[in-house]
Amino acid sequence: MEQQDRTADLDPSADIKQQNQQQHGENIFERIINDPDRLRFHLELEFLQCLANPKYIHFLAQQGYFDNPAFVNYLEYLKYWQQPQYARFVVYPHALYFLDLLQSDIFRNMMKKEPEMNWLHERQINHWIYNKRKPPQRPEAQPSSSDKGSDLQQV
């Protein structure tokens, strides 16, 4: 018993957990587990976000999941996450893109091959490195052909 008290003292999140339990009357994990709809929501969201990882998709392909029609139907079912009211919960948007690609039998078969998986993973990393969103820049004022002789600057 004494060792448990020491562990609780060392856990910085113990106070937060205790406050959460006092405010809500129960642990948030218990609320999720006890509510089948919440549990389903969280499990589907977690699985969907795993699809953002090409190596995980490759693993699923290697294990034969994509050969199972029931699993392919499940992937089709998960497309509801693309609707805005659900997509707002998705942290990794590549998951939605790969979910679209997984609707194709050609893509599912390609992901069985390690070189294709590596190629896709490299493209994903390059996208993260080089395609960062840049803030919109104010366009430079270009004089029109009729203003070439004019000394006035456009603002």
TrEMBL record:
Superkingdom of the source species: Eukaryota
Name by which UniProt lists this protein: Suppressor of hpr1
Organism: Spiromyces aspiralis
